[in-house]
Design brief:
Blueprint: E1 12-23, E2 26-37, E3 41-45, H1 52-60, E4 67-72, E5 86-89, H2 104-109, H3 117-126, H4 128-148, H5 164-177, E6 182-186, H6 194-211, E7 214-218, H7 222-228, E8 231-236, E9 238-244, H8 251-257, H9 265-270, E10 273-276, E11 281-284
Helix pairs in contact: 3-4, 4-5
Length: about 290
Amino acid sequence: MAEDFSPVCGEEILHVSNLSVNRSGNEIINDINMSITCGEFVGIVGPNGGGKSTLILTILGLLKPRTGSVNVYGKTPMSNATLGRIGWVPQAATELPHNLRITVKEFIQLGLLSSSFLRQHLDFFISPTVFFKRRKKNQLKVENIIETVGLKQYANTMISNLSGGQRQRAAIGKALASEADFLLMDEPMVGVDLESRNSIMRLLDNLCHNQNKTIVMVSHDLASMKRTVHRMIYLEHEIRYDGTTEDFPDLSSLAELRGIEPTHPEADSTKSDVTKSDDVVIIVSPGAEGGES
C-alpha cells in the first residue's frame, strides 16, 4: 500500500542546521539555522549575492553543504522519500521558447512525470483496469489544477501565446501536478505585470490556507513580500532577520542591521525630526517654539 504523504498542519517540512555553503571557493552563506512548518508562506529577501539562490539550490540538493545539514520531511535532499514532494519554480519558468508547440494542458501534464511515472505505466501490462482508472484520475486532476491557477479558458492555447503572468501560472500548475506539497520559488515574479502579480500572490496564499501547501519564495520585492507572505527572512550571507512581516525592520533599521552607516551624518542631524504614530505623522521643525508650522 502506498505511503500517505498528505501534509499535516504543524508538521516540520524543512530543517536547516548550522548550514554553510561555498561556491567557487568563496563562502556564500554561513551558519544558517531555520525551520519551516506545513502551511507557511515564507519570503526570503536580501541583496544580490547575499545567498538566496544558493540556499534554495542547497535545499533542492543541487549544492552540497560545506558544514551543517538540510532535512526535508526528515530526509536528506534528493532522497527517494522526497521525490515528487518538492516543486521548484525557477525564475526562468516564464522564459519559454516562442516556438514551443505545447498547450497549457500538455505543459501542466508534464508535472505528472514523477518518480511513480514508470510504475503507473507498468500497470498497463499488469492491470489495464488500474491503468485506465489512474489515467482518468490524472486527467481530472490536471483539469482541476488548470481551474485552480485560473487558466481554464486557455487550456488548449499554445503556452507560447500566453502573457508572462499566465505562463507563470502554468509553471505553478506544473509544480502542483507533481503533487508537491513544498514549493520553492526563485524570483518567480520577474517580468510579470502588476495585475498578474497580485493575482498569483493571492493564489499562492490560498494554496497555503486551503491545501496546506508550504511555500518558500525568493524575491527582491520587499513591498510585495510584506503584503503577502506570513513570515520574512532577510538573508545576507547569514540570517539577519527571521520573523513576522509586521515586525520586519524599516529601511533605516535594515541599514543598521546590514552595518550601513550614513554618509552625511551632519545633514541627518539638522533634518526635521519626524514623530510617527499609527495614524499621524507630526513634523517638528528645529527651533519651533509652538503652534503649527
